């Protein structure tokens, strides 16, 4: 029981440090994060483009939307501009996990842009490193490859 508790504390400490440490976009982020967690790696090569599957909640309208955000590009959700710098998944021999480096900027009309979040979000523990905003919640669901040309927004 003590060993399990110690491992949980170690995981939470490592994940929190990784979530709070800003990483540059691109390959350097994947290399740095991969060395912190030997099981996290880039999305395996395959057809389609690498995307982060995200879920957004608009607290004003109480509506949720699941959408894909391509790695290296910006996506809009309400007044938010969400940029995915990198998206990592666990190796097949480890428990399922996805982590995405997100930069979230709010572009409210008539106000200067405001950076709300920049850091790693983890699919298995969304409350560990979450967007803390009065209007929106955003969480990572998975890192995958998007097939075809039609967007998976709902």
From TrEMBL:
InterPro entries named among the record's database cross-references: DUF2155 (IPR019225)
Signal peptide: 1-17
Keywords: Signal
Keyword Signal among UniProt keywords: yes
Biased composition (Low complexity): 19-39
Residues covered by region (Disordered): 19-43
Signal is among the record's keywords: yes
Pfam families named in the record: DUF2155 (PF09923)
Protein known as: DUF2155 domain-containing protein
């Amino acid at each position: 029981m003590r060993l399990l508790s110690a491992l949980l504390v170690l995981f939470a400490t490592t994940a929190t440090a990784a979530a709070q440490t800003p990483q540059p976009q691109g390959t350097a982020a994947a290399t740095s994060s991969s060395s912190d967690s030997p099981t996290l790696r880039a999305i395996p090569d395959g057809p389609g483009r690498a995307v982060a599957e995200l879920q957004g909640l608009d607290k004003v309208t109480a509506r949720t939307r699941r959408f894909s955000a391509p790695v290296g590009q910006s996506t809009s959700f309400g007044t938010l501009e969400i940029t995915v710098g990198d998206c990592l998944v666990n190796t097949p021999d480890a428990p399922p996990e996805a982590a995405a480096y997100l930069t979230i900027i709010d572009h409210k009309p008539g106000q200067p842009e405001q950076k709300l979040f920049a850091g790693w979000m983890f699919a298995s523990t969304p409350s560990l490193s979450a967007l803390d905003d009065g209007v929106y919640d955003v969480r990572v669901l998975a890192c995958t490859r998007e097939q075809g040309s039609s967007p998976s927004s709902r």
